[in-house]
Amino acid sequence: MLHLWSASWIAAFALGAIVWGLTFWTIIFHRKKNDELPKQFKYNSMVEVVCITVPFIAIAILFYFTAITENFVNKETKHPDVTVTAVAFKWNWQFQYPQVTYPGSQNAVNTVGTSDEIPILVLPVGKTIRINEEATDVIHSFWVPALLFKRDVVPGLHNSFEVTITKKGAYVGHCAELCGTYHSMMNFELRSVSAADYQTYLQTLQKFTPGAANYNNRQAAALKAIGQPPEATTTHPFTTDRTARHAS
């Protein structure tokens, strides 16, 4: 996608240079010099053919490479290494890891954000990851700018995509679809870790069974278990208490 975007801009600048060159050439060399009426041309077939053919070729080339890139980006493998589910709701995220369930239950281990805690999606580097998307209310959009990719999360519609993360780190994520009052506060963090740390993270989450007294602290505890900061580092919670706000 980055290559397509960069090449599109290069092509746009090249065509722009031609247009601006012709514009300035006309301004400089065809200025009014006297009151004599310049030679008039009713039609110029060659100019018309060029003005139709060149844009058509440019559009056709852009369409071709766009279609190839979209097919590549949307391609999914039959058996991804990791599968996670991002559940969007007004105005936060839940991240489910269906490959691991709580003992004696069919429910996948998960973490969920609150007004006081940014949800963190932990994923391994070097693995093919499929992210399934679900929405419980309105249309949202899963967007991690560092991935150069976003995809809408639509109620009742199964959306998914695959990604392979190559670098460890922490990356901010947003909802990119206007979804209501606190849309701008609907952030999350993607934390990419080693495959071994990812497994340890899931195993630690598995110990915090629903209903336990420490269940709500599972995200921070699991991150600490792999030596990661227990709270998001790329974004922070926003207060939803309007009475706490004041004009500066």
Report on the structure:
The chain has 248 residues and is of the alpha+beta class. It contains four helices and ten strands. The strands form two sheets. It has a five-stranded mixed beta sheet with strand order 3-2-1-5-8, covered by helices on one side. Strands 4-10-9-6-7 form a five-stranded mixed beta sheet. Helix 3 (195-206) packs antiparallel against helix 4. It is elongated. The mean pLDDT is 90.
Quick description:
The protein is built from four helices and ten strands; from the N terminus they run ααββββββββββαα. The chain has 248 residues and is α+β, with helices and mostly antiparallel strands.
Number of helices: 4
What percentage of residues falls in helices of 4 or more residues? 25-40%
Biggest sheet, spatial arrangement of strands: 3-2-1-5-8
Task: Give the N-to-C terminal Cα separation.
Answer: 41 Å
**Overall mean confidence score, pLDDT:** 90
Query: Which parts are unreliable, with pLDDT below 50 for 5 consecutive residues or more?
Result: none
Strand content: 25-35%
Tell me the number of strands: 10
